[in-house]
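Slide 14.
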Amino acid sequence: MKDLQFMVHKSSENTAKDDAAKYDSAKYNERSFSTLMRALRLSQGYFSFVLVHCNSLVLRQQIVDRLQATCAVKPRQLFLPESATTLYRTIAAELEGEQPTALMILGLESVQAIDRLLVSTNLLCSEFSKTFSFPVVFWVTDELLRKIVRTAPDLYNRMTTIRFISQ
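Slide 15: predicted structure.
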């Protein structure tokens, strides 16, 4: 199993303090990765919202790649178009009745009408569990997390939150 320590990059000079920070973030990220795999495994056959908080797009891609390579649950990826206005309809149209083991929502940071998408998702929270029987994983940055908390509080309260840190 790959160690997430390689994913922590820092541009400053390598000092003992930097080594400790890298070790701590690598250890933290390993625990987060295990938590994410466990959340996906335990949600099989059931609907759940999982929020993965990660500010580094590079780290996010490494985690997604590692999930695909090592996790028994192979999440399907959905890259939201910039023009998306509702998450529920976008997912339903993409899946056409299919029920994947898990679905990862990527590209939220690029959606132009993000507030509208979040409000509609917040209003339709209960519809997701009626239609989908798999976990939906949201990848978000600090900025998106703040928007979700402010714009879609019901949605946020239903989410399991997992955080990855980068230097």
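Speaker note: The chain is about 50% helix and 15% strand.
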